Amino acid sequence: MARLSKGIKKRKIHEDGAWAYAFIAVALVVYAMFTAYPVVSAFLISFEEYKPLGSTFVGFENYANTFGDALFWKAIRNTIVYTALTVPVALAISFAVAILILPFKKWLQTAFKAVYYLPAVASGVALSVVWLWIFDPLPSGILNRMIDLFGIENQNWLGSSATSMFSLVLMSWLSSHGTSIIIYLAALLGIDNSYYEAAELDGASFLQKLWHIVIPFLKPTTLFLLVTGVIGSFQVFQNAYLMTGGGPDNATTMVGLLIFNNAFKYFEFGEAAAQSLILALIIAVISYFQFKFLGNDVEY
Amino acid sequence: MARKFRVLASVLALSVSLSALAACSSKGGDASSSPSGTASPSAGASEAKDTITALLPPVSANYQNNFEQMAKDFNALYPNLTLKIEPASWEDMTQKLDTQVNAGSPPDIAFIGSDGISKYVQQGMLMDITDVATPDMINDFDKAPLEYMKKGDGLYGFPAYMEIHALGGNKQFLEEAGIDWKNVQKNGWTYEEFREAIKKGVVKEGDKTKRYGFVFANAGVTSKDYLNILIKNAGMPSAFTQDLKYAYTSKNYLEVLKAVRQLIDDGSMPKELSSVDAGKRWNMFLTGQTMITGKGLATFENSANKNNEKLKANDGSAVEGSIPVEYIVLPVPSFLGQPPVSSPAVDGYVTFRGKKEPTPEHKANVVKAAYFLASGKVAATTNNELFVAHITKSGREAAKSMTVNRNPDNVAAVEVLLSHAAPARPDIPVELGAKAIKLEDEVIIPKFQALLANEITPEDMYEAVKNAAIKEFGQDGVVQD
Amino acid sequence: MALYKQHSGNKLVKYVRNTAIAAALLVFAVATLFPIYFMIMSSFGDPVEAGAVSYSLWPKKISFDSYRFFFDYSPHSFKWLLNSLIVAASVMVTNVVFASLAGYAFSKIRFKGRNVLFSVLLCAMMIPYQVTQVPLYILVVNIFQIENTYSALILPGLVTVYNIFLAKQFMGSIPTEIIESAKVEGCNQLQIFTMVILPLSKTVLAVMAILTFMDNWNTFFWPFLVTNTMEMQTIQVGLKNFRFANTTYFAPMMAGATISALPMFVLFFSLQKYFLEGVTVGAVKG
Questions:
Q1: Cross-chain Cβ contact A18/B15 below 8 Å
Q2: Residue B225 maps to which CATH number?
Q3: pLDDT of C121 over the 70 cut
Q4: Using CB atoms and an 8 Å cut-off, which of residues 97-126 of chain A contact chain C?
């Protein structure tokens, strides 16, 4: 009897496995063609001096150049600082907003959701033009007019090393968190009321409910937003490119910008590929730790 | 069941390995063909149908509107040839072009600045048209701009115009400050004269400066323009001397850096200079917040006139707070007794090739298309809109029938500047050129931005540039004076 | 909603508390909304060059000239919107179908190589696009030769790892007992997926749909790369063409940006009802 059921179980697992492969088939094919192939290409290119007419194999030269390049490490530092300042704050803001929207009636909830979602929809390029005006360094600039009320002298927001990184970070904080808010809200709504009721019977306060029920329940979501947030932030370059061009004195040069310059301005595609792979490695290491701390799936 | 499992697993493995295989083969292989059609067999080839692709940005205000007409006219001229024009914006054009070049399938013709030629020659993706361009075509062009389209021994396209980067002044303010601008236009001015002149143009209201003497766009990468325009007039018309030594380690370079700082510290230029972008510097000019603006292109005269008309019409469409302005072309000051050398920008139609070697017939057709775009009616219309001089005989002919509304003083001033434009340097090898570009991007521009923001001294920047140059070119490869 | 105390006895406290929260939310909303406000206000200005633009908080004159300019500028303006719609809608549908399938497989089915495969998928997200663009371009244009077609715009985005990851995380919280009990009743995985998982995942699917559509609608560089005739371009590419010579036609660009933002709202409001119900609720008790 036991042997029979073990046999059934094994068959069930194999059958499940077959179904699993069927389910992921389409995704895998698309992935293999449009994602894996370019990545493998990039990997191969990183060992060459790439020329469209015919590349030459140079071994680890590109990697050696990158490791010895002081600007690369400065860019990495800038990017890490930027990520550390923006991703956790973005998560905290979206979490807070999602929680705050909860107590309202449906129509008000929808209104707020729309309001926060709206900026995400506007074109990034159009928005950067607006921000350039906000950061206008002359006393007539919007931000300068505001701090003038406090008696502070007008700042050269994007042009001085002290404030340029902060300006980019500020821009990120005030940009749309609509995506994260919506995801958090969706997850929050999945928490069954019975948990709260049980907690209230035990006399739990708002904060205790938050800490013991909401946060653990939201762990998978937080992990998702954290991992994708870090991945995205490490690759950021559009804002730096449009607003500061990486300056002044490379204070806002991000790794994404460096890679972009290498690939397109200097046409050193092999080196750009090497830099990309080093960047990917760093991100992978960070993600590994994120999974370790937050990744234990909560099964109910 | 187990078999299904194994089959699926092997399908998986196969697809992943196939992609890896494709990655290896595609680079060496010849799978790509240039996007334009290949000509049919050689016999009677000149009558064969062919398509030429061109990637063109909005060169002038109406340029992109005329694409259909241009394609039609070309087809009328050569019934067997089709000109397929693809529009792009200035900012994105290089990214797209570069991706296509890297992938081995660029368009046949692209409109870019001549300084980009060096970059693409290094990749071997440019098509040398020396042997295919007819003598008639070559002679149609003025010598100076044509030189800019050459590198080493090859000619890589046709120039569309040669624009001079100068400064622009507000006539009324200039006269109020007692500056004899007509003389300046004819004979130029030294740095010391310039410094005094713009001091006179500053108008203060208590502690705040209402009007600056001089403003130059420096935000982001435009800071490159400002520095280049000045050092050309300080005895360094190019990054390399005639014997191919890196020129920016000269003491003159330090003097220019000091001058940049002086102009700001004098109060004649805003201290937020590093964040002033093109839109801002033009806005400041139109609203009377500055006497002189830079960089100044001849076409700005047109923009200023248009705004003046709107002010007259008083329909609220003029720039808010703007005043009527008469635009005056002014030269850049010269430093340390060096001869004035004006900064030309030559943009043109550059010819590309794909991974596959183009057939002689296709080469000839591409040249025909490039010539069509760079001369005659097309060039005349474009250049007139841009207020730039014509550089082809055929263009001048065609322009005779078109009217242009330009201040004759400005026209004369531009002629003077054109006469001492910096000469092209096709002799600079591409590797040196590429190193200079990288140095500029990674050291010079960042440090310059910091200098403008008063975070480092001119001496600091000079040291940094010198050290980087010596590291890159060696002690013998740089100028030492 | 039961996270907060109900205060069913003291209505005043509840009212005050809610107002305080609303005020805080509003302040933050204003700060985030300001650039959008400016974008819309500028779109009512005259179609003039950016250097000539006056930055004011309230438009001097309201005109729809810029909107007309946007539509007149190119006979393809409508086509751009249509193209974006077709591409974004297709990608949205395919993603919802295939990413949810894959997400379920990764989260609930135990199969060989599950973790390794998922890590590999995730790692590919970490390579910056600048470098993957060129090989991808070679693949699409040179090898498959499908440039300037809808396929070129749709295929690379058919299923994204981001969506698979999202689905996996959300489906992870579906109680395993339900799946086990369905298996006991003799359902195979496909039946489990369609009859058990899908209904419980309406929320995440709605979220995925909106995010995918929005992301695809806003994307610029890839469509820019693979289209080379004006009639195949998407709205974001068309918008960028407003940068003329050395200036930008500011107001028409803002007008275009406003127009392109509208369909997002329509989509949002039509899908948002799925957000208001916690659809996984009740599954445990049943």
A1: no
A2: 3.40.190.10
A3: yes
A4: 97, 99-104, 106, 108-110, 112-126
